[in-house]
Amino acid sequence: MAARTEQEERTxxxxxxxxxxxxxxxxxxxxxxGELLITxxxxxxxFVVYSLWWTNVLADREAGKQGDTVRGHWAEGRGPGxxxxxxxxxxxxxxxxxxxxxxVKKGTDTETLNNGIAGYYTDPVKSxxxxxxxGNFTLAAHRxxxxxxxxxxxxxxxxxxxxxxxxxxxxxxxxxxELPETSKYNVDAIAPVPKESGVKKxxxxxTLTTCTPVYTSKYRYIVWGELVxxxxxxxxxxKPAELR
Amino acid sequence: MYGWIWRHxxxxxxxxxLISLVLALAVVYAxxxxxxxxxxPLLPFGDVTVDGEGTGAGAAR
Lengths: 244, 61
What we know:
With 244 residues, chain A is an alpha+beta fold. Chain A has helices at residues 2-12, 17-23, 25-76, 110-113, and strands spanning 90-93, 101-106, 118-120, 135-140, 161-165, 169-182, 204-212, 219-232. Chain A is 30% helix and 25% strand.
């Protein structure tokens, strides 16, 4: 008798799901819940793929486009003077980071930085420009995702070169201090004279900021450099020795 | 859930498989195009600046 019922059940497995569900409501609920969990896991996994890979693809594409625009303007003889800062003021080269050139634009809001570029601060402390007689040229860029332009900031050591390229000048900076971990409230790090780095007198400084540890934004990583010399850009845009 | 969807798809196994694949790709596309860009600023992974305020997504400003 029992064997027969089992056989009946087996034949009923292909029966309409309503009947099957009503007969094993607990199993249905449990399997539904399990499938939801699996789905949630897959979605989170996809989010990681999105954050660490896809945003880089998009940002690099966009940064390349915007960089070409700026270089196009330079070739035409426009910018990056005061009139044309919106499209970008130049390119940052940090050989130690091995990431090629990074376009630098005004502002550090999320939308700007998400295009795979570095931004110079306008708030809370206004950045100086490299051409200014003195001041601190303060920059921020993403550590991960959205181009991850400052991903290798931890590879930058004291003495390494940071070169900023504008239309007509190469500004060659030398790293003299770094701060691997600081609070995000540490606004003094981007002060015109960043005392925390050990300097006391006004000078021509550069400050790179990004988040740390990698893949999070708990703290900020700071690298300070000081201008050592400038070079005029020649007609071939010959790179300074540090980039060769 | 997935079993229910599978049973309600038309056609034989191959057709169902193909439709399932298209549906899965559509979901991934929707996630990458709309859901993730919306969710990302709400999560505190992309703040790179120092500032005085520093509250969640606002810290990136």
